[in-house]
Design brief:
Elements (H helix, E strand, L loop, with lengths): L1 H13 L10 H68 L3 H4 L6 H17 L4 E6 L2 E6 L11 H12 L10 E9 L9 E9 L135 H11 L16 H13 L4 E7 L6 H21 L7 E5 L12 H7 L1 E7 L2
Parallel strand pairs: 1-4, 5-6
Antiparallel strand pairs: 1-2, 3-4, 5-7
Helix pairs in contact: 2-4, 6-7, 7-8
Length: 454
């Protein structure tokens, strides 16, 4: 602000083409003196304003603190007065006359006047309001001619409000108090305390409320399973809690109402029924690899395989890889002509009498049989030896076995694997002719060869 003032003064003297530094020295001195005086006054007024503001704020803070101190002192005084009044009112509430509801007898008046004198000893009190079972009773205890300090309307409204916000009984009683310190604002008024005190409660014995009758809910359980009907999904059939009160006859964990097979244990995914067995082979569909065709467990529910598709399963088929009739154990039937050649060769096998030694005339026939076996590697041959009944049966048994083995030995010597040849002696058994005649006995002394491909 000061710099602005100096700037303006310079502007005045520099106007019209004049400049200060060109004026005479005396004039310059006057100009600078004016500037200094002006600046000094500006500083003076500025600091004076700041000082006054500081003083005002300090006085205001002091007034606030004084007001707080006065208010605190008044509050302590009011509290002391109110504590004194409250103590006496509480003592008065224990009067047997008041508790019996007596508000008019001389005894009651005597008690009230006595307490009035005690309370007025420290603080004036002019009216009591007592709340009994029938409402609010107002009692003036100020002697006649003495002015009251309370407005009747205000006090009565305050007590009514008190009665609406507490439980009306002495044993659980409520005491309300209010106090003010009134400050004089006109010359005809004086400083004085203004107190409002009230007691509310039942006079006499504590009123007992009739006990409330609690209705016991009726719990219904028609089927007697221990599950109330409201939570029982099957209220007319005894069941278990796990199934919400429903029965489960087959014990599979599925309530009968949801079980399509209630008498047979099953699975939930089959709606309570066992795992199905579509082909009725005793293997359930989940384990049956052929669920639509009866089978056996060792083939996982599938039929016994028939590799050569001849109708004879592989377990009964002696030739599982070659089709053949069941009469030949599933093996192909050997050509009749071949069979007849072998049969004819068997009839031309001869031995020395009573011996197992082959005669030379037998070799041609046996070589023919050996060739047939060589030409058909799947063929096998059974060699069976028989005798007549002449002589000892045991010796005949041994003789028949030896003769069959002699034939086998010869065939082996002609390049046939012995595993393809079976030699068996039958002795005197299975005769084909009458042993009573020489011709019959000759026929019974024989070797038979039977071809087979299994």
């Amino acid at each position: 602000m000061i710099m602005g003032l100096i700037s303006k003064i310079n502007g005045i003297f520099s106007g019209g083409g004049l400049r200060i530094n060109r004026l005479p020295v005396k004039r310059n001195i006057i100009i600078y003196a004016v500037i200094i005086i002006t600046v000094s006054f500006a500083f003076f007024f500025y600091f004076q304003h700041q000082t006054e503001q500081s003083i005002r704020e300090s006085m205001l803070e002091q007034q606030k603190q004084n007001q707080k101190d006065n208010t605190r002192a008044l509050a302590q005084h009011i509290r002391s007065d109110m504590n004194s009044i409250m103590g006496r009112l509480q003592g008065m509430s224990h009067s047997i006359y008041l508790q019996q509801g007596d508000f008019t007898s001389n005894y009651t008046k005597s008690v009230l006047k006595n307490y009035f004198r005690q309370m007025n000893y420290s603080t004036p009190v002019d009216r009591l309001f007592i709340l009994d079972a029938n409402g609010i009773v107002k009692m003036n205890i100020v002697p006649e001619g003495q002015p009251t300090f309370l407005g009747e309307r205000f006090s009565f409204e305050w007590v009514k409000e008190t009665s609406n916000t507490m439980s009306p009984q002495f044993s659980d009683g409520f005491v309300g108090a209010d106090g003010q310190y009134r400050i004089a604002v006109t010359e005809n008024a004086s400083y004085h305390f203004y107190h409002s005190v009230g007691i509310a409660g039942n006079i006499g014995a504590k009123k007992m409320e009739a006990p409330k009758v609690v209705e016991v809910p009726v719990i219904s359980d028609r089927d007697g399973d221990g599950i109330v009907d409201s939570s029982d999904a099957c209220p007319d059939q005894a069941g278990t809690a796990a199934l919400q009160g429903c029965p489960d006859r087959d014990g599979d964990g599925i309530a009968d109402k949801d079980d399509k097979c209630p008498d047979v244990a099953g699975l939930a995914k089959y709606q309570g029924c066992p795992i199905p067995d579509t082909d009725k082979d005793g293997i359930n569909d989940e384990e049956d690899k052929c669920p639509d065709v009866p089978g056996v467990a060792r083939y996982q529910g599938c039929p016994i395989p028939d590799t050569d598709k001849d109708g004879v399963n592989d377990e009964e088929d002696k030739c599982p890889n070659e089709a053949g009739p069941a009469s030949n154990f599933g093996c192909p039937v050997i050509d009749v002509a071949v069979v007849e050649k072998v049969n004819k060769a068997a009839k031309n096998i001869f031995f020395a009498t009573g011996s197992s030694k082959l005669l030379a005339k037998s070799y041609a026939s046996l070589k023919e049989v050996a060739q047939i076996l060589k030409d058909n590697p799947s063929y096998k041959v059974d060699v069976d030896g028989y005798t007549d009944i002449t002589g000892n049966a045991d010796k005949n048994q041994v003789l028949s076995e030896n003769r069959a083995n002699s034939v086998k030995t010869y065939l082996v010597s002609n390049g046939i694997d012995e595993s393809r040849i079976t030699a068996t002696g039958h002795g005197i058994n299975d005769p084909i002719a009458d042993n009573k005649t020489a011709a019959g006995r000759a026929k019974n002394r024989r070797v038979e060869m039977k071809l087979r491909n299994y």
